[in-house]
Structure prediction request, 202 residues.
Amino acid sequence: MFGSLHGILRSNKGQALIELSLIAPLMLLLAYGAIEVGSVISTYLTMTHTTREGANLASRGGSLPIDQNGANYSNPDDILDTIIKAAAPTLSATNQAQWRVIYSHIIRDATPCPAEPCNYIVETGANGQIIRGNLNNQSKLGGKTGIPIPQSVLPGIQNVKNSQSFHVFEVFYDYSPYIITYVGKSINTNFYDRTIFTNVSG
Prediction:
């Protein structure tokens, strides 16, 4: 009797071990996948917040004071440095090859515009377009070439009065999965986000 009971107990232990060995890899895969999804969402949120805050600060630049660290928010260079610092560690000096942040000031083309819609271009001055980061991506607005920006790139531009200007922040990010999972292999790793604010500074 005792021998039979001992055999049953050993059999149950063996069965549990086999079940655990079959289920454990799946559970680990699901856990790593959840971590990867969380990392993707965090990166997207950081990019969205960065572009919105940057465009907001730039659009209000002339009406904002210098902050406690000496940054002048009417200066696009200072705004870029401020929002990049706030976006750490997603954007940092140690991973500049993974990202690029581009500020563009869009103004109406100086060419006479007898009737709207007028052409809008990236300002050709020193602060017309400022770039941070080493990722090899170009602004989807174009560079400081004086070439009009297509309305397909800036939908609704045809309804804007010809005295208006815009502040645009673009963020490119080459996402590298932290863990090699089915999630990391199935997503587009080239992230892009953009926010456009009209100029409201006085």
Q: What stands out?
A: The first helix runs from residue 2 to 59.
